[in-house]
Structure formats: C-alpha cells, structure tokens
Amino acid sequence: QVQLVESGGGLVQPGGSLRLSCAASGFTSDYYGIGWFRQAPGKEREGVSSISISDGTLWYADSVKGRFTISRDNAKNTVYLQMNSLKPEDTAVYYCAAVEATVVVGMPPAPFVDYWGQGTQVTVSS
Predict the structure, then answer these.
(1) What's the CA gap between 108 and 28, in Å, rounded?
(2) What is the per-residue pLDDT across 52-107, written as a single tens digit (0 to 9) for each?
(3) Which phi and psi angles does 88 have, rounded to 5°?
C-alpha cells in the first residue's frame, strides 16, 4: 500500500524560504515519479515540480523555475521541495503526488495522479 506523508509548510514572509518533505513508502519498483501540486482558493490544482525516481529527470512549472528545487534522499525514500524567494502568489495548499510510470517528466493533470499526500498549507504574507 503506497503512502505519501508530507511535512513542512507554514507561514513565511515574502522573500523567505520553506522546505517541504514527502516520505514515500509501499512502492515495489523505481518506476514512478514524485511531484508537488498546489491549490490556491478558487483555483485549480496545478503541478509545480516533479522528479522521476528511475532516472532523476526533473521538471518545474515556469512560475517556480529558479526559485524552487526538488531533490530526493534515496536512503530515506523522501523527496524535498526547497522553496526560496517566496511570493504571496505562492500561497496555497501543497500536495505531494505520485505517478507510476517508467519515466516521469512533469505531473499529469490532477485526475490522472495515482497517489496523493494529505496536503500542507503554505502561506506567504507579511
């Protein structure tokens, strides 16, 4: 049984940084990708970043390129999203997500995601 457990998030001032963690368990192979979505009030859930576990392929949405960095710790089966230079428009609930595929380049639309974390609130405000 696949589980994604998130941690991190919180309140930060504009220009600040936060790190989200997603601990994954239950996968039986390396053919999957872990990524992050976010959903602001009144908006659709959008993909932010992803990493393909089989080959390390990274992907970022244009809105976060140069500010967010996704990485993984294989020993801990954990994926991190380091968020720097945060802006008020980054405020949203952030969800860890997983897609089972040989190679994952970007997250598919939300209805096609295989597994979800519980979500964590990120608020960027002064």
Answers:
(1) 21
(2) 999 999 999 999 999 999 999 989 999 999 999 999 999 999 999 999 988 888 88
(3) -55, -30
